[in-house]
Write a structure and sequence with these properties.
The chain is an all-alpha fold and 137 residues long. Helices cover 60% and strands 0% of the residues. The protein has helices spanning 2-14, 21-32, 44-71, 108-136. It is rod-shaped and about 130 Å long. The protein starts with a helix and ends with a helix.
Length: 137
């Protein structure tokens, strides 16, 4: 490497580069006619604005869903028996007495369970939104 370095230095010393006064004047005029480049920001402000915008949009959407779900929720209906559990008198309908088995219809049971499950899910969602809001602010 020493020979190579020595040869490069000799070649560099042998080069005679001269700039004419006209070329120097043109270069100076070109440099003075150009505005300096302004440094570009580090990019944090645009990403921070995007984060704030997406957070606020998500919070607004969550609040809107909560309001709409609570606004459209019907009042709870008191439980009423669907059918009487009494069997008609056998004297009135003698031909139906051996076949007749009257029971209360259980149509609302599964729907009530589903309503309880949905209310539980809604409470979990509210708690999650509340935690997110506390974390964000």
């Amino acid at each position: 490497m020493d020979k190579f370095d020595k040869r490069l230095k000799e070649d560099a010393a042998a080069i005679r580069a001269e700039v004419s006064p006209e070329l120097k004047a043109r270069i100076d005029a070109s440099l003075h006619g150009v505005e300096p480049i302004r440094p570009v920001g580090d990019g944090r402000s645009s990403s921070a604005r995007l984060w704030w915008a997406s957070s606020l949009t998500g919070i607004a959407a969550a609040i809107l869903v909560i309001v709409l779900v609570n606004f459209d929720a019907p009042d709870p209906v008191p439980a009423e028996p669907v059918a009487e559990t009494t069997v008609p008198d056998a004297a009135e309908t003698p031909f139906l007495a051996p076949m007749l088995d009257v029971r209360t219809a259980e149509f609302t049971g599964p729907l009530e369970e589903e309503l309880v499950n949905l209310q539980s899910d809604l409470e979990k969602a509210r708690e999650t939104v509340r935690k997110d809001l506390d974390f964000t602010f």
